[in-house]
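Table S5 (text form). Sequence records supplied for joint modeling of the two-component complex.
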Amino acid sequence: MSREWFSLARWWSIVLKEVLQLRRDRITLAMIVGIPLVQISLFGFAINNDPRHLPTAVIAADHSEITRSLIAGLQNSSYFEVTETLPDEAAGARALAQGRVQFVLNIPADFTVRLIRGERPAVLLEADATDPSATGNALSAASGILQGVIDKDFKGPLAALAGGAAPFEMRLHRLYNPEGITQYNIVPGLMGVILTLTLVLMTGLAITRERERGTMENLLATPVLPLEVMTGKILPYIVIGLIQTTIIMLAAHFMFRVPFVGSVLALYLAALLFIAASLTVGITLSSLAGNQLQAMQMTMFYFLPNILLSGFMFPFRGMPQWAQVLGSVLPLTHFNRLVRGIMLKGNGWVELWPDVWPILLFTVLVMGVALRFYRRTLD
Amino acid sequence: MKAAAAIDVRELSKRFGDKLVVDRVSLQVQRGEIFGFLGPNGSGKTTSIRMMCGLLTPDGGEGHCLGYDIRREAAQIKRQVGYMTQRFSYWEDLSIRENLDFVARLYQLPRRREAVDRALEDLGLASRARQLTGTLSGGWKQRLALAACMLHEPQLLLLDEPTAGVDPSARRDFWEELHRLAARGISVLVSTHYMDEAERCHKLAYIAYGRLLVQGRGEEVIASQKLSTWRLEGEDLVNLAQRLERTPGVAQVIAFGAALHVSSHDAGLMDTLRVLPGVRRVETIATGLEDVFVYLMSHADDNFRQGAP
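The corresponding structure-token record, covering 688 residues in total, follows.
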């Protein structure tokens, strides 16, 4: 049996050829540089499981030295940031449902009077506990903060109240997910993640495959219109998306026992909207990609920030401002809020709208890009 | 609309980046004519064909295809033209029937099932209709492609190297089919590299480096180059050929089996050839298409360089 020995010269020629090819493949180059950079910046800076400066609304029916110092104490802890003052509980409930604030601090009208009388009045701190990791640390910090306020403020005539049992009570309400079950947050979030991955990838591949195999030229030579090709290729994936939605919904209900408070129809409508957004991304990527491999790489490039910045894996409000801005552009961020809002909070149209229009806008803009780049002829 | 020429394009140009791929090509194909489009690889044949059927927008020039403007009426052209791409471009993961059916749907044929059945019958593939297209041999793929682009009964066929990689007997069948179609009044523009195929065309055009060098009937193309050709027999043909190439007045020397074909613009060269050492026999022969095309190909380069600034 004859044996071929390893030839350094041959080996080196392969190396050179690979380098040459790589140098011409700008997408791979961008991915080689881009992925580590993206990962480092996301994991290193953006991901924060101890989110602070969480938006908090205050319903203060009582204005006194003590309530002011209570609010100041919460602010100083850096966990809470008072972003608005609301007139009543209904407004507070709406702010929580829309996800505008993470907490609502409710101070009753006769709080100071009852406090001085020693009746141990209660303040109510309501939390949107959909994502337990976003609120957990802030909630456990809350009682310590209040103790600090007491130690500092209850001097002189009030010193008697400071000793012994706390002079007032803080009631915590974990709304939507009282037991802090992580699955309640993760499983609905998975819906958007899976839809993103499969739909963007599949449409991307489906269209680049035509180009790669030369069949696109054949299609373009027939009377069929580009828009027909695009939309016709999309339709099966819309159905696939709806099937996936159903599977995840059933799994959420039967396997993870995630409560479903809202309307199934609303969820399907939200899913359709999100599917549309993902498909337009897929088409756009496919009109930019030269072949299937590039389409796959681009999908991953799109998928990564979606996973990390959308609030799926990590609390959205734990990210720095720039990451939140980036995240707000991505449809998955809003779809996650829609799904959680519908399933866990039972939100209706008014509460959902703030997360519907960003997806609509995104879809329209990306569609514009797709139509701009779609090759009508072969030029 | 009058019975316009099947193809009538003037001064078509196309640029990719800063490379001029097609340079002011004008050609006319009459109805019912088989028009051969010849030229080396990369000479701009495919690009020209794509412009004629509206797949590419020309950068310069204008023209009509079946009476429709190639710039503005691409949609009408597509409905009445059958275009067969150079590379097999049907879906290999679809069966034969599925492919035909898909194409029939794209053209919205009124009696789709019948049309597909008839096509399968004509192809002789009725029994294999469910076979995946990817498993067909090259010759069958080519027949399927022709059947598919004939499905909507086009008035004009644009065939881009349809017989590349097809065996001789399948090629012969294919050309017989083309002549049957032409007899029915269908016009055919076919690009090819094969001389025997060129000889079966009613008219020919030769393109090189994006420029159309000559067009007309076979005899006209041959006559246009004003070449005289002789067949030489002798000893040590390789050396003889080299010597001949250096002989003044010789335009080209091509080896043909046990003989050499020598062409020249000087009809009186025969006397020179006869007395060359090593030459046993010289006879005057008719200049063939192949002689002319080889001549055109080797001189196109020079012309092109001279023409360039």
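Note: The longest helix of chain B spans residues 289-307.
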